[in-house]
Each structure stands twice: as structure tokens, then as C-alpha cells.
Amino acid sequence: MKKTLIAAAVTLAAASLSTQAMARETIYIVGSSTVFPFSTAVAENFGRTMGFNTPKVESTGSGGGMKLFCAGVGVDHPDITNASRRMKASEFDKCQDAGVEEITEVKVGFDGISIANAKSAPQLDLTLKDVYLALAKDVPDGKGGFMPNPHETWKDVNADLPDSKIEVLGPPPTSGTRDAFVELAMEGGCKSIPEIKDLKKSDKSKFKAVCHGVREDGAYVEAGENDNLIVQKLAANPNALGIFGFSFLDQNTDKVQGSKVSGVAPTYDSIADGSYPISRSLFFYVKNAHVGKIPGMKQYVAEFTSDKAWGPEGYLADKGLISLPDADRASIAAAVNDLVPMSKPE
Fold it and tell me: Are the CB atoms for 315 and 307 separated by under 8 Å?
């Protein structure tokens, strides 16, 4: 009965999309704040040169974008969602349940997560262990258990770091940047502590809780999805650190600088070659049912995956996008052109 109702709803939505296509002639894009400047640049160029309306692009965070994208098919739902991490299996299932059955995944390039501070402040050199011990909700108590994080200053974490209060402005749980930061930085530092690394084998849920839990006592401040606002706050407060994608660092080098992580600064080259420890892939997802119904979708995707946009010398490189290797771009562009549906993520 449930499947019958879902099928009926999907059929009705598809019919609605077909008959109401004229009700929306502008592509609607949501999702990651990190991918937002790249998507906006493509949208603006597309609108100027392709004879279609300039797409509407909203920065909702990766998780927020997935929720909107997977809510259904039809003109009331987004056509594309940007993400600074791969779609989760649970999100894919929600899409399928709501009738968003064929989705094309587009990996667009690489990005590094910067831990930045004001240009006027000393540049820090942090290890992943330092990051974990500074921002984890609970840390080892030295007796085989865990305790609420007692560290108040960076010097409490590591004697070589400044005696300044731990104050980090970062993204909320709905953000793909937050997901990637927790997985790459927090868990990376967590695993460098022997007693926690062993916990992964004996109690995976406990390991995740300990390694992914972020402080809620004021040391970590959720600063929303507006990375430009974090940059402004850092410029005004030299003692604070902020977490955001490399593109925002690259566009604001007059105001902020990236901390080194294990001796490696966040740069185009260090992210591209993988030597910078907090690097990740960026994506967007296309709702195939909307292609041919919402004007310009296939052309927008073709613009994004053209060498003039996402290539090493393309205009997105000027915005801070780290390009994929030539062979990867060619194979992805071919799959996107054919709108090859993705499989369920593992």
C-alpha cells in the first residue's frame, strides 16, 4: 500500500513538473557554502552567455541542501544541490523514498579546510592531535576513561602553542565543512592517541562519539553558513580562529592567514598533491527528472564541467577551486553529459 501511494505521488509530481514547467524557467540550486562561490560564478557566466535566466543559488549548507533536494520532484523542489562531502547513504535513501530516483553525481574538484586567524596575529602550526584536544567535547582522563574537555588555552593543549584562550568560529552540524572537518581533522587527531585508536576496534559507537563530539562550552562557536562573516569576525578578533574552505582563505589573504597543519600550509599545491592533511573533494548533484523540464539544466552542467570553468586555468581556479586531474575531468564530464545515475553510496 505504501509503495502504491509513493508511486502515485511520484507520478503526480512528474505530471506537475511537465505541465507547470513554465511556472519556473530559472534553475534552482541549493547546498554547500563552500561550493557556493564556484556555483555562483558558473551561474553568472551561464546567465550572461547562454541565453537562459541566471540560476538562483542559495547557500544552505550541504546537509540542508540534501534535505531540500531529496524532498521530491517538481517545480517546488531544487534542481541541483552542492555538497562539500559525498551524499550519504541515508540521504540517497530519502531521495529514493520521495521519488528522486535518478541522480547524477558530479565531483568538481578539491578543497582544503583552513584553520585561519587574522593576518595581524602569529601564524600557528597545529597538529591534528592539537586540534582534537582543543575542540573535542570529551578527552582522555589518563586513567582509561574520558572527561569533559578541561583545556582553556592553546598552551594547555601543547606547551609550544600561545597562552591564548581557545576560541574557534566554525560551521554548524548542517554544514559539509563541519562533517569533513570532524572526519579529517578531529578523527585524525583522535586516532593519534593510542588508547582512543584501540577503542575503534572494541567499540565503534563509543569511538565515534569521542572522536566526533565537538565542545559545547563556548570554546567552539557555531558561526552559521556564512563563511564571509567568519572572515570578518577574525579580522576584528586576532585571538580567534576560524574554520572554512580554502577558497575563502584564498579570496581574503589581505585579512586572514591559514594555520599550518603538521608543518604544511593550506595552498593550492599542497591541497592538490594531498600533503595538506585536511583536504576533501567537492560535489554537486543533478536531479535527472528535471533535465529537459527546467530550461538550461544540461547546458549549466556542461558549462560547469568545461575546461574554461573547472580546468587548471579556468575561471573557477581564480575563485580557489583546486582542479581534478585531466583524465578524471574527462571521464566525469562524459558521464555527466550522458546523465549517468549514481549508485547508492557505501
Answer: no
